[in-house]
Amino acid sequence: MKLINTYLKGDRVIWVLVLIISVYSLLSVYSTAGQLAFKYKGGNTEYYLVQRFIMLSLGFGIMYLAHKVKYTLFSKLSVIGMIVTVPLLLITLIMGANLNSATRWLLIPGLGISFQTSDLAKLILVTYVARMLAKNQENIKDFKTGFLPIAIPVVIVCALILPANFSTAAMLFLICIILMFIGRVSIKHIGILTGSAVAGFGLLILLAMAAPKLLPRLDTWKSRVMTFIGTNQEDETTTSGQVSLSKEKYQSDLAKMAIAEGGLLGTGPGNNINKYRLPQGYSDFIYAMIIGEYGSIFGGMIVLLAYLILLYRAVRIATRSEYAFATFLVIGLSLSMVIQAFINMSVAVGIFPVTGQPLPMISMGGTSTLFTGLTLGMILSVSRTLDKKEKENHAAETGNN
């Protein structure tokens, strides 16, 4: 315990939550990656267990290093990050790697490694918005000098993410709007931005209907929404008397079957047969498999509570800070994690259309895990700095008395 207190600073509850989430990730990925193992690794499921352990270790390492850095450095780095992020998003849009019919990944030349640029953009934009809100508090109500320097980067980044990843763009836009509201931006200006974004998106949809190449994923979005509300024409077509289900309908139904089979207590680790059939049981639908194997009580509720407690601890950290940037940063970063988690869980239980959002720190995936580790490290950096300052103030008061 002394070793932990010496090296792991900041909010101890968050460290414990990360450990709990990581355990669920290891167990669930190992259990559900069997279909990948038989397809690509000759049935070697241990390969994905080791791979996941390495990624979680790297994520934890990044989290540890980030929490040792004074959080004010992230404010300065966000400016450089914005300069780098916009060109990266453009390159990804034009010549990015196409996986699962979406151009979201950028290949690093010579290494054969791909990463999702939207993960970087999400982190950079939230940090940048927090910086600008803190910097412009004195003139935050002014449209030209207070609002536009924040709104323009938000629109540019979200617009570049939108064609390949609508759910991430919409989620990021929502987080920025919440931050603006908390940061005392005029409600009128927020309304103008939101209304313009909705109108612009509507116009883009109309243009894409006339020129399909403008938004290649429009049919996918339409299919997911139609499947969710139960009016997908594809689900009603038959071939030789059999119903042809859409990919989204197929996955959603299997997820519901896994959850139903799990019930309250679950089937036990590795015993849910749906893991062999659910295509994204190790990533987008991993929450359904967690409930299926560990039950609604020991699986679903514990994971849900972990993210809720994380949000609560983050809000406590934010309210303790006397500095605007620290407050906005912690709220923005925690919301980016928790909202994404809620979207993923909502899709798994069938109360939200399929989106492709991974469950932070649990779903199998490299880029997402590393950037989630960095996100948590930045939150803990604020917590560590606050704890250090409070101890110094307490020591000074004790010394004076």
How many DSSP H or I helices?
14
Tell me the Rg in angstroms: 22 Å
Let me know the number of strands: 5
Mean pLDDT: 87
User: How much helix, percentage-wise, in residues?
Assistant: over 70%
CA distance, first residue to last residue: 31 Å
Tell me the β content.
Answer: under 5%
What does the model show?
The protein contains 14 helices and 5 strands. The chain is mostly helical and 401 residues long. The protein has one domain. The protein has a 3-stranded antiparallel β-sheet with strand order 1-2-3. Strands 4-5 form a two-stranded antiparallel sheet. About 2% of the residues have low confidence.
Summarize this structure as a short list of keywords or feature phrases:
mainly alpha; globular; two-stranded antiparallel sheet; single chain; 401 residues; 3-stranded antiparallel beta sheet; 5 strands
Summarize the structure.
The strands form 2 sheets. The protein has a 3-stranded antiparallel sheet. It is built from 14 helices and 5 strands. The chain is mainly alpha-helical and 401 residues long.
